[in-house]
Amino acid sequence: MSTAAPTVTPVRKKPLDYEVTVTEVRQETHDTASLLLDFGGAPVEYKAGQFINIDPHQFPALRCLTGFLQEQKGRRELFRSYSMSSAPHESQVAITVKDEEFIAGITKYPALLAPYLIHGRLKGARIKVQGFMGPYHLPDDVQERTDHLVHIVAGSGAVPNFAILKDALHRGLKLRHTVLCSNKTWTDMLFREELDKLEAANPDTVRVFHTLTRETDESRFGPKVRKGRISQALLEELIPDRPTCLVYACGPAISPWERKKALETRTPATPRFMETVLGHLHTVGVEDKRIKRETYG
Ligand SMILES: Cc1cc2nc3c(=O)[nH]c(=O)nc-3n(C[C@H](O)[C@H](O)[C@H](O)COP(=O)(O)OP(=O)(O)OC[C@H]3O[C@@H](n4cnc5c(N)ncnc54)[C@H](O)[C@@H]3O)c2cc1C
Hints:
The protein is of the alpha/beta class. It is built from 8 helices and 12 strands.
């Protein structure tokens, strides 16, 4: 088994512009929905784990909010990226969008696009998207690099890994999968039933674990659902083959504005999921070159 870093083989060099129809908006959890997208026969070539971009300026209903936020932030609002929750072999292309919590006194600006994608009654709407892109996918020679893929995700970070898992199983890649999902509560767990089904259908190759940081119902906890954050001890327990596994980690990291504020106030930014997990992985002996990461936010 090689220890070289995963190589990246882009599907396309330049993303294409598409106009797609939202055929369904399917509620996944209380704050998360999947949008099924019909590309109308246009060639759809992507790798599991890649994302599309959506420009908020295209939506008349967001015109005022977009203008207001641009004025407040002193810059043009950027495209938002959304990973496909679908895998390339599936007939429906889907993205899955989470509406982040508004915390009074902490959330600086109202979120722009995610609430609209989820609650804007977009079923039947034509929207412009740009795709497909991103290096967060399996290298072509993944089976030569490892036999164990470790998925470590938080919140909507589950989206690309769900696609990667489905794709690897569909293609019959000789890989074992350990899926470790971090969420706040039981009702926040994304793709819980689907992951359970994949585990039941592939008992020798798929193991799914959850950690819940704010769940108060103790009856939810057990060997597969642990209390608290992802810890160093849990990673040691679940990844015995640390020198040879490949980790795909996706979730929130310190945002650019948190970094800027930290510099201005000379106070270190509080580590978020990604910084904490990377720290634990390094400590337990997973080499950085064996960790593929994607940060949201
Ligand atoms: C590669 C990639 C893939 C992604 N895939 C997914 C996915 O599959 N599903 C998903 O749900 N999300 C995904 N995201 C995140 C997504 O792109 C958006 O960031 C997310 O939906 C929030 O966008 P928004 O417009 O709703 O909120 P935003 O308007 O971006 O606001 C989000 C938060 O940031 C704060 N904020 C924004 N700008 C500033 C500022 N200048 N200073 C201080 N605070 C600020 C706001 O107050 C708010 O709390 C992905 C991101 C990346 C980079």
